[in-house]
Amino acid sequence: IGGMTSYGTLLSGLNYDWLNRAKVAPFYAQPNARLPQYKTEQVLRDRARSIANIDLYLGYEAVDLTQDDRSATLTIKERGSLALKNITADYLVGADGSKSFVRTKAEIPEVLSEHNRMMALVVFTSTHLHELLKVYPGKAFYNVLHPDFQGYWQFFGRVDHGTNWFFHAPVPLGTTKENHDFVAMLHSAVGQKFELELDYVGFWDLRVAVAKTYSKGRIFLAGDAAHSHPPYGGYGINTGLEDVRNLGWKLSACLKGWASALLLDSYDAERRPVFQSTAADFIEKFIADDDDFLSNFTPENCPDFRKMWQNRNENADEVMRFEPNYQGSSIVAPASGRPSAKGFHSHHAKAGHHLSPQLCADMSSIYDHLGRDFSLLTDGSDQDLIANYRQAATDLGLPLKVIDTLSPQAVAAYETQVILVRPDHFVTSTGNRIKARDAFCRAIGQAH
Ligand SMILES: Cc1cc2nc3c(=O)[nH]c(=O)nc-3n(C[C@H](O)[C@H](O)[C@H](O)COP(=O)(O)OP(=O)(O)OC[C@H]3O[C@@H](n4cnc5c(N)ncnc54)[C@H](O)[C@@H]3O)c2cc1C
């Protein structure tokens, strides 16, 4: 599912492999997958339908929102109807996209980083382009960097393999569907004419936006409602899904009664800095670095331009460095730093970092055993420690799953025999120096 970056035009022959996320596969339990947006939505809808206590209201629009100390109420209306319906709940999560009604209604302002660029999104059908790109096998997306675009991308992505494509690129301010030749723009980016059929043309302003806070009272924001950015690097929905993973267990803990609302404060404290770092250290840095290179080096002024272009790839470490983590968060064991998208993938189990998949003694994956709540991983050698954790969990009313079959290889990779793992599979604490009760209290945002 990797991509490539070309200089000048897509078919210039000056290209390098780019954003090969297969490099980080050993650090995750699931293999990488790439799904077009419409299929992603289908998967999410099917999943929602399969959960008995979700009521799905498709075709409804949120038109009002109120909250008090005890609940939040959303007023919805079926499209084409005037009848209103109120839904009242303990909490409300607005996952309603970058123009979020919930965010606006809750009066949560956004911090904007404007780029003063108008972008066009073109969806088109072309088997001819698929044929032309067979010279670069195994790629799902293609970026074209041209000095005229000051570091902003001309980006081709496959929707369905072989036929359907999307393309986005900057266009002059004031461009409309009628006053711009989109076919010529595509031919120019590819570097030759090819047969295509335009399916859709749309526009957006390129900016990075982040809500000033991800929560207000009983209202939370997740996904593009909380943060939006240009689609550079495929961080969008992934960041949204991670928001939900972070918030989900915290809301569940409060509703089940084993954590107080204090735990919910950590959602904003952990997730907002991760997005800010994704935007500054990756997305906007890509644009700045590309602009810097393109404005300083050209095939005309550098005899060894081809080598320099390749070197950009050899030195690239953005895939390994993109390791969103909550190091320094108040609900994981103390460590320097603060939550960030910048880290480094490693099997070493560290507080605030995602747990890499290792094997249990029976060769099954740890991820086959991790619980939906807290999990204690050990090699079983210290039964007193396990008893302490069980007792502390019982005292605090916390659900705990003990997995005491870590293999020696797993202990070596994790560099510890004891790991307390949160429900979202991030590490709370490691080692036997922290007391079980203290580890749990900290993990649920409670004074100990
Ligand atoms: C060209 C392009 C390429 C992209 N490529 C990638 C990629 O490769 N990888 C990646 O991770 N991300 C990518 N993204 C970003 C990704 O599409 C978004 O981050 C993602 O869709 C955000 O999901 P969301 O659920 O938060 O918001 P949305 O997808 O915007 O969904 C919000 C939903 O809320 C509904 N809604 C809004 N207001 C109301 C209301 N008042 N009442 C009821 N419903 C409402 C909307 O109808 C919509 O269904 C790309 C985006 C673009 C434009």
The CATH class of the largest domain: Alpha Beta
**Gross morphology:** globular
What percentage of residues falls in helices of 4 or more residues? Answer: 25-40%
CATH 4th-level superfamily of the largest domain: FAD/NAD(P)-binding domain
Biggest sheet character: 8 strands, mixed
Structural Rg:
24 Å
What hetero molecules are in the model?
A: flavin-adenine dinucleotide
Ends apart, CA distance between termini: 46 Å
Structural class: alpha+beta
Total helical segments:
11
| Tally of individual domains | 2
By DSSP, the count of extended strands is 20
* Low-confidence blocks of residues: none
**According to CATH, what is the topology of the largest domain?**
FAD/NAD(P)-binding domain
Based on the coordinates given, report the CATH architecture of the largest domain.
3-Layer(bba) Sandwich
Physical arrangement of strands within the biggest beta sheet: 2-1-8-9-10-7-11-14
Mean pLDDT: 95
Strand content: 25-35%
TL;DR of this structure?
With 448 residues, the chain is an alpha+beta fold. It has helices at residues 37-50, 101-105, 127-132, 182-190, 236-256, 262-296, 305-314, 318-321, 383-396, 408-414, 436-443, and strands at 3-7, 15-18, 60-67, 72-78, 84-89, 92-94, 110-125, 141-145, 154-158, 164-171, 197-211, 215-216, 219-221, 227-228, 322-325, 340-342, 374-378, 400-403, 418-421, 427-430.
